[in-house]
Amino acid sequence: MTRYVAPLLIGLVGAAILVALGLWQVQRLAWKEGIIADIESMIAADPQPLPRVVDPATQRYQPVALQGEIGEGALYVLVSVKRQGAGWRVISPFTTEDGRRVLLDRGFVPAAEKDTPLRAGPAAVLGNLHWPDDRNSATPENAPQDNTWYARDIGPMAEALQTEPLLVVASDVDPADARVRPLPVDSAGIPNDHLQYAITWFSLAAVWIAMTLAWIRTQAKGKD
């Protein structure tokens, strides 16, 4: 009987650890779903005027309504859009009625239309404040001299267009420019892999138990 103690102990302890990790991921899943629900609620809230005091921690995704004028010129950020392919996010300066000048993410144009003139002039904009985190270890450095950007780096973009370091991502622009497709903020890009992680840990626990039972059967056969 003592020959079964080690397999049982290793099996139970290992399975308990793996199940605990799975349960932890289930808890993380509930936490992340709560965060995503809060973000979606913020995105869909009623638009507010552009805030005077800026606080990225509390104002990320805040809806805003702007009246003013889209300025000449634009910065182009290389992106890939599902079912659209490669193209550019168009970032233009926007001057509000009270004289503030901010960055406006107007949306997507196909790759071949980078040099196509875009509409400038008076416009009403609905959108969301955003402080994007586009950059990772594989993101190339921006090439402002070629007007090729690989991330929406708000500081350098604000300097290039002489605006406040404040970005509004448009969900609707009136009048619209038919060449630009808005890319509103949403929660789709927020990673939420906790369910897959939980399934992985529970599956490993099941495999661990199966291997433990196989070990015990081997021990039993050896005794015979």
Automatic annotation (TrEMBL):
Q: Which compartments is it annotated to reside in?
A: Cell membrane; Membrane
Membrane topology note: Multi-pass membrane protein
Instruction: Provide GO CC annotations from the record.
Output: plasma membrane
Keyword Membrane among record annotations: yes
Query: InterPro entries of this UniProt entry?
Result: Surf1/Shy1, Surf1/Surf4
Record family assignment: Belongs to the SURF1 family.
* Name of the protein described by the UniProt record: SURF1-like protein
* Taxonomy of the source species: Bacteria, Pseudomonadati, Pseudomonadota, Alphaproteobacteria, Rhodobacterales
